[in-house]
Design brief:
Blueprint (H helix, E strand, L loop, with lengths): L1 E4 L30 H26 L6 H12 L5 H22 L6 E3 L7 E6 H13 L4 E8 L3 E8 L4 H19 L6 E7 L6
Parallel strand pairs: 5-6
Antiparallel strand pairs: 1-3, 2-3, 4-5
Helix pairs in contact: 4-5
């Protein structure tokens, strides 16, 4: 389970912390990824490119010849047509990289962390999907007749695939839905996933 402190906490009252009211309906937002690696790569590339260009411009201002790469680049841009394969490929690469950076900036990421209901305004908590699936799997294994079960938890749906070796399948499915509904409620997720339960017999041997 992931716990984070809100960047703008509400000031506590003068009384003890035990007197802070519980806000069951406080909005729960998704967690945003820090994305240190993409940010570090972009910053390093921009810094290196800007430093190299600034050095070359300063050298030209000091009556020195420009670097060979800048002269070749300027000649290529002046002589190559716009429909040249190299120009089109470079433009397409720049567009793809730009869209990728925009997507990273506009999306929260951390899809593996499900936000939990907020009990206090200054505390945020999240539950890993694998931990939620494990908790629901333990719940399902307690149902009579369940031999094996596989659970996958997504942002909006929890898919449960169970194998029952005795009892009627409809009865096992009904008990599973009841037990898993209680399990989902105990997870205290801000957006409880919908249950999709399927029960089948084990494959016959031989």
């Amino acid at each position: 389970m992931t716990t984070a402190t809100d960047p703008t906490p509400t000031p506590a009252p003068d009384s003890d912390r035990d007197d802070v009211p519980v806000l069951a309906d406080a909005p729960a937002r998704r967690f945003w990824a820090v994305r240190r690696i993409p940010a570090a790569v972009v910053a390093a590339l921009v810094l290196a490119g800007a430093g190299l260009l600034l050095y070359d411009v300063a050298a030209v201002r000091a009556d020195r010849s420009a670097m060979a790469w800048r002269r070749e680049l300027a000649d290529a841009l002046a002589t190559r047509p716009l429909d040249d394969a190299l120009i089109v490929g470079g433009a397409a690469l720049a567009v793809v990289l730009g869209l990728w950076l925009l997507i990273l900036a506009a999306t929260p990421g951390l899809r593996a962390v499900l936000p939990m209901r907020r009990a206090h305004t200054d505390v945020r908590a999240g539950l890993d999907r694998e931990a939620a699936a494990l908790a629901l799997r333990d719940r399902a294994m307690e149902v009579s007749g369940v031999q094996a079960v596989r659970v996958r938890v997504g942002r909006s749906k929890a898919a449960v695939r169970a194998v029952s070796h005795f009892r009627a399948l409809d009865e096992v499915r009904a008990d599973l839905e009841t037990a898993l509904a209680a399990g989902v409620d105990e997870l205290a997720l801000a957006h409880p996933p919908a249950l999709n339960v399927r029960v089948a017999r084990p494959p016959r041997k031989g």
